[in-house]
Known about the structure:
The complex is a heterodimer.
Chain A: H1 2-36, H2 38-46, H3 50-75, H4 79-109, H5 125-161, H6 171-201
Chain B: H1 19-23, H2 28-57, H3 67-102, H4 111-133, H5 147-151, H6 156-183, H7 196-228, H8 241-275, H9 282-295, H10 311-339, H11 348-371, H12 373-379, H13 383-413, H14 419-446, H15 460-490
Helix pairs in contact in B: 2-3, 2-4, 2-15, 3-6, 3-7, 3-8, 3-13, 4-6, 6-7, 7-8, 7-9, 8-9, 8-10, 8-11, 8-13, 9-10, 10-11, 11-13, 11-14, 13-14, 14-15
Bound molecules: protoporphyrin IX containing FE and copper (II) ion.
Copper (II) ion binds next to helix 8 of chain B.
Amino acid sequence: xxxxxxxxxxxxxxxxxxxxxxxxxxxxxxxxxxxxxxxxxxxxxxxxxxxxxxxxxxxxxxxxxxxxxxxxxxxxxxxxxxxxxxxxxxxxxxxxxxxxxxxxxxxxxxxxxxxxxxxxxxxxxxxxxxxxxxxxxxxxxxxxxxxxxxxxxxxxxxxxxxxxxxxxxxxxxxxxxxxxxxxxxxxxxxxxxxxxxxxxxxxx
Amino acid sequence: xxxxxxxxxxxxxxxxxxxxxxxxxxxxxxxxxxxxxxxxxxxxxxxxxxxxxxxxxxxxxxxxxxxxxxxxxxxxxxxxxxxxxxxxxxxxxxxxxxxxxxxxxxxxxxxxxxxxxxxxxxxxxxxxxxxxxxxxxxxxxxxxxxxxxxxxxxxxxxxxxxxxxxxxxxxxxxxxxxxxxxxxxxxxxxxxxxxxxxxxxxxxxxxxxxxxxxxxxxxxxxxxxxxxxxxxxxxxxxxxxxxxxxxxxxxxxxxxxxxxxxxxxxxxxxxxxxxxxxxxxxxxxxxxxxxxxxxxxxxxxxxxxxxxxxxxxxxxxxxxxxxxxxxxxxxxxxxxxxxxxxxxxxxxxxxxxxxxxxxxxxxxxxxxxxxxxxxxxxxxxxxxxxxxxxxxxxxxxxxxxxxxxxxxxxxxxxxxxxxxxxxxxxxxxxxxxxxxxxxxxxxxxxxxxxxxxxxxxxxxxxxxxxxxxxxxxxxxxxxxxxxxxxxxxxxxxxxxxxxxxxxxxxxxxxxxxxxxxxxxxxxxxxxxxxxxxxxxxxx
Lengths: 204, 539
Ligand code: HEM
Ligand SMILES: [Cu+2]
């Protein structure tokens, strides 16, 4: 059992290393074009909805907290604690995706989605289009990770409701918690890099 | 080793029968067999494409295929051979089978994930095959942009997704191996008592988990770019096509080590066994695997000497590339030193060992030519490069794979095969190989570009030689299919340790029982604790 826990935890850490490399590739793309086209980056950033982004940042931080509480409840063997906190985590994760949906819809409305319908009257339009390409790739892949995370939590939740975990066996809760925190941390990087750039560099 | 040969317990092959028991198995040995069957099929497919290429190139005119068809054939040859044969070959077959046994444990850390990786592998292969039936892909296995992202009208998106999916299989396999080596070793089996094969697979796994996600995201970007018009690599929208090459080679140069490091690990085992001797400089060989894995990530720019990369960057990449040659040379030196003064016996694995060392050395030395920036400008994208990487990958990696298969076949199947057949095959492969690829060095030096289906008539003699060599090579590869299959039906039963080799895998019956070891394993001696078979007098 001991060995099993250690193995699973190490396995998840190794997996998260691969995730870092995965997002790392996209961050390389981001950095390169940001250096090449700083103006377009600031302007693109100004088109993002900082309020919704900040709201989502708050939502995710709360979900990290409820996730940590779920792990804690498993450790001390409180079944109701696990169930409540897992449900809260799932709800917060879903709120994130709903907010994301509204954000994306807004971009479609304002013709900020790369492709033939992109609003070419914007200053630096071609390079802004590149900014939005990266915005959609990064946030899209992140959202896909959220969907996977919510699915994972639903599985853990049903296991918790059946009383599968105890203070001596809670590996799945702990390991999926690691994944959830990782996805939150990625967002903590994405938010300033994408949304706050315009405000920070102050160009309009 | 302090472990007695188990007598009871049914072998993993005889355990429950039936298709379902195989397709749902969590036994690492059965999963290894599933991989063995699938990659053998892919190898045959890739080889058929290769034969078509060589047939076309036997004459200077493009009389067999038009240029469009030729592009699709060599692309499929590359994609199938690299992603569906070379990368999984040794890790997924021999690694899966041997790593848990060599670590003295019952299975990998995550048996279910192990099975999942095989299914992902098959799913990736099916998606890629769908691209073939959907009109094929004509970009070359490197998917260079902007051709692949905006110009090509072939099924790049589907093929890219296939490669993306297959990548996850590699990642999960690597993850499983790393955790197993860290957490599941038997008591007493310290890091420096591990067989060198385990070290090599461990280093390979590091490359897999660090590199594969990068190529995964890169092909995903290409697919997204095609489907959603994103423009990352499209110069008309401010994108940079060379960025793709950086991302692609950041994985694909290390990937060449995913192919060759495991073969080097196999060689270390075989060299020790056929020389009846502790590997010379064990820890140097172990650490050189890690050094290769790390340095392999720092040299990708040698594929971009003729891109827009600055000449200073080129210089740095050129120098670091030469550094990688050092750990490779350390290994070659140590194997030679092991065999020298060893009591070498000329069994069939020895033939593969010697063949490997010859071909790998030529491949590695020509790598140094290419790493020299000035020379590469002349040689890049010519048949010289084609010959270089085939010497390493076909001459090195496949020789290693076949050597390993011959060495461990009695363990895996419990049957002995024809030694004469095996020796004939090794010799045919060696001769056929050199006949096929050596002329390509000359062709490349004379300027014949790669990826063309027609060429000036002056080059025909060398091309015909190469095509003739390919036929010899094909016979060399086909031969094992016969005597190995025959051994399954009529071969003599293999004893637990037919080669008189050291290592945990030789202490259990052939084929091993489902849970490998009857009782808990305790290791109390270093790897390769051979006693010389006979005194050797030198001088
Ligand atoms: C040890 C295993 C090795 C493998 C499996 C390997 C494989 C390959 C492959 C597949 C390519 C061609 C890629 C393509 O364009 O399709 C290549 C090119 C190249 N290799 Fe290697 N190689 C190995 C070792 C080396 C070494 C030791 C060096 C240098 C010391 C080297 C230097 C190069 C260079 C510079 C190129 C680029 C040539 C060009 O595109 O102009 N390689 N190698
Ligand atoms: Cu390279």
